Structures are given as structure tokens and as C-alpha cells.
Amino acid sequence: MRGWRSAGLWVGAFIVGFTFLVAVFAPMLTAHDPFGQDLSRRLIPPFWMEGGKPAHWLGTDQLGRDYLARLVYGARISMLIGVMTVITSGLIGISLGVAGGFFGGRIDDVILFIITARLSIPLILVALAVVSLVGSSLTVVVATLGLLLWERFAVVARVATMQVRNLDYVAAAWSAGCSQPYIVLREILPNILSPLAVVATLEMALAILLEAALSFLGLGVPPPLPSWGLMIAEAKDYMFFSAWVIMVPGLSLFALVFGINLLGDGLRDLLKTGRVA
Amino acid sequence: MLQFLARRLLVALLVCITVLTFAFALTRLSGDLAISIAGPNSTAADIEIIRKAYGLDRPVIQQFFDWVGRAIVGDFGQSYFFRERVAKLIGDRLPITLTLGLVGLGIALTVALPLGVISALREGRPIDRLISLVALLGQAMPSFWLGLVLMITFGLHLGWLPVSGTGTWQHFVMPGTVLAFSAIPALMRLTRSGMIDAMSADYIRTARAKGLSRASIILKHAARNAAMPVVSIAAVQLGFMLGGSIVIETVFALHGVGFLAWESISKNDFPTVQAVVLLLAIIYTLLTLGADMLNALLDPRLRAS
Amino acid sequence: MTALLEVQGLDISFGGLTAVRGASLEVNRGETHCLVGESGCGKSVTALAMMGLLPGNAVRRAETLRFDGGDLRGLSEKEMSRLRGDRMAMIFQEPMTSLNPAYTVGSQMAEVMLRHRGGSRRAAMDRAAELLARVRITSPGMRLGQYPHQLSGGLRQRVMIAMALMCDPELLIADEPTTALDVTVQAQILRLLADLQKDLGLAILLITHDLGVVARTAHRVSVMYAGEVVESSPVRTLFSRPMHPYTRGLLSCVPVPGKIRPGEPLGSIPGMVPQVTERFEGCAFRQRCSLMRPDCAGPITRHRLGVDHAYLCQIPPEEMARS
């Protein structure tokens, strides 16, 4: 049993780490240009299937672009989206949550109301609307998701702050005359980081999935960027003939998100018991 | 009890108003609406005509209150693109989305509840680990991709289910399943932890001391107490599902509100977009309210306060 | 006449840790047998073992475990569940959490009867009301429709007692029934139990750590220490002629008004209760005993004085009487 739980943490960390490395070292992993079209070489299947060519390991897409190259550069997009969104939404959510939990009273009421209002807004719908109105680009997607995905950070930060605020060492700091900002930064923040780290992994997974969905619907990252979601959308028209076109990016997405979730779960167990399982 | 309800309604109302304002502001994001409607090849004169025709030359505040005033009586204006009343558009499509949502919730509950209970009763054993793993896999699955894969497998290769349209109940099986996938992990996990807590409670020890049958203890005593958080989450999940239906309806070409939303967004049909956002917010609010009331029904302790 | 409940050589362990070893006791019809000891001595676990309510990881072994002549050891969970609530009943220490908050008092009581005796819901409810009156709860009809959170602790404990009596059990096991209650309520509950015993011929196994409760209610007493029954005797004998050093120590800890003079130090037993983790050979009390001898580390003799007084010690009765 113990082995299983810690296995999850390591497998998750491995998957995420691996993807990160793939993203960083993309140019070294493939000689092909992910944007290089060659219509004479369209829809070549992966090398292990009939009709495959060794020059293109995972075949080519409908515009003749090397699939492996697009996959590998697509990892950059996914990781970028994941990390940037988490940073943005984390900053917003944690600020709101800590403010609410620390000050309590009216400020907390207002913040709770904001969180409730945000929860009532249909996420994908709004994201789609914003992108369609402002124009689709990587920056816009990151900004939109970052501005929308903060509620779990806020909720967890708020609850954790309220718990910590009542503890003895905070009271000790108060009576020693420490100023409020000091207490927040030095006493409260370090002690609420653990549950927030878990939330960060969950939100990262969610952000990646959402970007893929947005791109799939045509209102996310614009072509010709190799977003995995976009690749699936572009391949949709051909999927009935050659299923692998959607399987490759789909499985990559699935694996990455699964890895992040494993990591998050493992982190949560680690933090709860002080040790893995 | 009444006071509790009244307070919740007030908050719900305020939330809806906030969302309303937000939805309105959202559509004004791109700047001049008239230009967007007119299109890229229009002249300044065209734009002026459109501006007057749609009342976009009035102050924004006035436009807002105008819209609110009419929305309250159910008049959401005319769709820019579909040449129909927005209210009728939504009214036509809503049943499909609601059916989809309920089918999805039904499948989710049918799968998640028993799995959660089994996981709880066999806590720590291999079957528990397996179920948790499957839940984790489900959580990681991109819904649109799953939809496509199911389409290929069950629609094309096996030919069991239709891949698009809404003619018969079979049309809702695949989309409903994909929708359920997003809710099952959370529901299952909550059922599991709720049952574990309930089963270790003192009143279960009393029930065993009374010699009650195992089935009665699990289903009658433990499950009833474990159900409460599950009900709240189920309502919230339904809300999310309705929001997430946008992707599923597009993949399976179901003409529900979600698909309408996507169409109207891509065509800059602002009245429709505003109306849909508001509608979903209201539904979500009603669902959470309903969940609270159901909770009060299940837990006698809540009724007293 | 054979005892209603007979236990000999009961051993209980959890994952390799011994909680109870070699415990023996008997409860006769119409009699209250108190099982007394400090927290953690294994008395609650012993009670749970008899009802078959031990958790899944517990291992229970006994030379004899008989209820009304029938062997309990080989019974399946299903067969045990038929006995529980019907012929043997148990009430617990925490009345606040021992009732299910989601169901009414009446329905929780009625289900015991419906489970074991069948019949109509109405008949079960009538019986429940009758028993609520019997445990001196006012307006029993109204109480049936109330929820546990609407009742005070004392009331809830009475409900627990009434619920335990629904099917007219022969044995009632009460695990520290008054510990969580106010002193005044304690006295009421104990008096209630005594009256019920007289009226119904109930056999009661009462678990407690309070010697005062023992003095008021017991006919027979068994003293437990670190998982062993170190002494058992009729109640009067226990207070007048305690034999085991632990029992003596316990009694000396209780200040008796009139006997104790101002300025006199209160009695105490030096040392601490051993942890369950320690494997024990020999006497579990020897580290704290002023009469310890080298052979206390080996198997301990069980001495008998007369037919109903026994204690577990190397020191024979004559020597003990002298010290």
C-alpha cells in the first residue's frame, strides 16, 4: 500500500518533469520545423503503421507538417499555459483569500460574495466570449484563464488563513507589536503554502485542459501554433479515416494532465501525513 | 428556517445582478459594437445606421437599464444573427441541454455512488486503490477528446450509437457519458470520504450493538449521513455540466443552449451571449439553493437554525 | 444455576499488541457485575469482545465464552447480530454521539423490535413509548417524534437504555454509562438501572472506573489492570478485605470522609500504567508494587479464598493478610 502511494507521486513527478524537459529542449529533439508545410507529404501515418516513413516518426498532419515536431513544440504551449495561468490566478486568489481570512468581518463578506459571484459564471462560456472579442493569442488565453481560475486558491487560502490566524504564534507576534503586513508575510503565508501547493497542481491541470478545449473550439490559441487542442480540432475532419491523428495529441494531453493530478494527489498525501503514505 | 432561506435568496439575487452587469460589460469589451456587427468591409455610413438601429448610440448606462428592464419580463431582444427573438432561441434549445445535463448527472450518480460506497467499505484494499486510480484517469481525460474517441469506437467501428443529432435516447448516451466523466471523480471521492466518516461514527457502533443487518447499517444509517455533502456537490456538478455542455454539444452537434452559445459567440451575437450567460448563472444559483434546501431536509439539525 | 454469561481465559490482541490476556468473569441473572479499572486497562475492549463488536483487525480467543450455555465463539456475524439487541444489549459512554442524528428517537427504537420480532410499526412504536415511560421520560409520545439533537445528555442516555430494553434482553452491558453525565444525572441513571434490574431480572455488566459507582451498584466486582483481571469478589468483600496490591492501592486513593484526617497525604500508587506495546510476562503490576518479589516475573498463581473471591498474585492469602 505504501509503495502504491509513493509510486503515484514519483510517476506524476516524472511525467511532469519529462514534459518540462521536452518543452525546454524541443529544438534538440527534432530536426523538423513544426510550422513547415509540405502538401506533398500530407497525412503520412506513424512509422509503425502501414505507409509510414522513417523520416517522420509520428507521421505528418493534413498540411504536411511533422507530427512529432508539432507534438514536442506543443508541449511548450501546454507547460507555458499551465505555469503562467497558475501564477496569475494564484496571485489573485491567494491575495483575496488571505485578505478575507485575515481581516474577517465586512471585508470577508465582500470577498465571499465575489467568490460566489465568480462561481456562478459559466467558465468556458466567458473565456470563449473574451477571446472572441479581444482576439485570440497566447497572451489573451493566459490572461483570461488567469483572471478566471482563482476561486479555488481563494477558498483554500481563506480557510487556511482563518485557521492559522487563531494560532498561538500569531497571537505572540501581535503582542510583540509586529505590524500587519509583517504578520501576513512572515507568520501566515509560510504556513498556508502546503495546501496551496496542492491547489496549484490541480489548477495547472485544469488550465491545460481548458486551453485545449478553447483551442479545440477555435477560440483559444490561434493557428498555426501547435497547441495540442488545436491539433485535435484540425485533425477532427480526418479522424474517421485515420484515427491516429487525434490519438497522438489526445493521449499526450491525457498523460500530462494525469501526471499533474498524480503529483497533486501525492503532494496532498505527503503534506497530510508528513511522509508519503 | 425561513430566515435562512430569505437570506440565501437575497444573496442569490445580488449574485445574479452582478453576473448580469458582468455579462453586459463583457460584450462591450471589444469597444465599438457597431463596428463588430457591421463587419470589416463596411463604410462609416453603414456603421452609423447600424448604431442607430440597435440603439448603440445611447449612453451605455441607459442601454444597460433598458436591457435589464426588458430582461425582467423575459424579453431578451432580437438575435443579431438568427433573426429570431433570443428568448425563443433559448427556449427551443434549453430542453436539449437540460436533458443532456440530467442524463449526465444520472449516469454520474449511478456510477459514482456505488463505487464510492464500495471504496469506503473496502478502504485501503486493492479494489479501493483501483477505483481511485480510475477516478484519477477520468479526471485527466479531456472531454472533447473522449467524445471523439467514443464516436470513432462506438459510432464508426461498432456502429452501436449515432454520432450526432438528437432524435432518440440513444443520441444522448455518448454525450451524457462524456459529461458524466467530468463529475464522477469528485462525486466518487466525496461519497467515499463521507461513508468512511459515517461508518466510523458512534451511532454505527450503536446500530451494530442493536443487531441490525449489515445492509440496514450501510444503507439506512451510514448512507443517510454521508449523503449530505454529496447532494451539495451533485448540484454544483450539474451546474458545471451545464456550463461544460458547450464543448460536448459542439462535438456531437446537439442543438442545445451550449451550441447556441458557441455559435453566437463566434458570430458576435451579443444579445444572445448576454442572455445565455445570465441564464446559466440563474440556473447555477437555483441549483445551489435547491441543494441547500435538500440538505436541510436530510439533516434535521439544520432545520432548527 | 449456571451463570448467564461465562468467560474464561479471554485473550484479545490488535495486530500483535496484547490488550487483554487471560480475563475471566461471570455474570448471573438478576445480578450487577462491575468491571472496574483505569482508562486503557482493557475493560471496554472486553465488553465489546463479548458482544462480538471488536474491529476487524482484532483477534479474540477464549477458553470459554458462553451465553446462557451457548458457545459464542463459533457464531457467525449473522448469528451474533441476531443475539445482539435481542437477548444481549449494550449501551455506551457517549450519549451525545451514539444516536443517529438523521432519524427520530422513535424510529431508532422501533427498528430494534422490527428487526428481531417483526410485527407492525405501530406495535413497535407503542412498545417504545412504554419503555420511554419506564425510564422515567416525560411525554413519551412526543419524544418519539423528536430528534436526538433536541434532547439533553441525560435524556439521551435514558433513551439509549430504553432502546436497549426493546426486546427484553437478559443481559445488559453498560460501558461507562454515566461518565459523560453530570453528577446529579449520574445518580438518577444508576438508580434507574438498579430499579430496572429488580423489575426485569436483568443481568448487568457495568464497566466503570469509578469506585463510587461500584459501591452503589455492584453485587460482584472484577478489577482489571493492564489487560488482566487481577481480583474478583463480592462487592462487600472487595471493600472490606481487598487482597491484590493494586486493589488495595486503588482503595487507599479514595479519601473517605470521616476516616481521613486533615493534613494526611492522599494515597497514590507510584509509577504509571504500562503501555499496551510492552510484552508482558509475569505480573503486569510488579513495577509499582511495594511487595514485589523475584518470582513475580514468572507465571502468576491465581489464589482462591472461599468460593467467590479470587486474585492474581504470587503472595499467598495468609502473607497478604499480614501486610
Short summary:
The complex is a heterotrimer of chains A (277), B (305) and C (323). Chain A has 277 residues and is mostly helical.
Describe the structure in your own words.
The complex is a heterotrimer of chains A (277), B (305) and C (323). Chain A is mostly helical and 277 residues long. Chain A is 73% helix and 0% strand. In chain A, helix 3 (67-103) packs parallel to helix 6. With 305 residues, chain B is mainly alpha-helical. Helix content of chain B is 78%, strand content 0%. Chain B has 13 helices and no strands. In chain B, helix 1 packs antiparallel against helix 12 and helix 5 (86-121) packs antiparallel against helix 6. The mean pLDDT of chain B is 82. Chain C has 323 residues and is an alpha/beta fold. In chain C, 33% of the residues lie in helices and 22% in strands. Chain C contains eleven helices and 13 strands. In chain C, the strands form two sheets. Chain C has an eight-stranded mixed beta sheet, with helices on both faces. In chain C, strands 1, 2, 4, 5 and 6 form a five-stranded antiparallel beta sheet that branches. Chain C is globular. Chains in contact: A-B, B-C. Chain A binds chain B through residues 1, 4, 113, 116-117, 119-126, 128-130, 132-134, 205, 209, 212-213, 216-219, 229, 232, 236, 239-240, 243, 246-247, 250, 253-255, 257-258, 260-262, 265, and chain B through 11, 14-16, 18-19, 22, 26-27, 29-30, 36, 124, 129, 136-137, 139-145, 148-149, 152, 156, 242-244, 246-247, 250, 261-262, 265-266, 268, 273, 276-277, 280-281, 284-285.
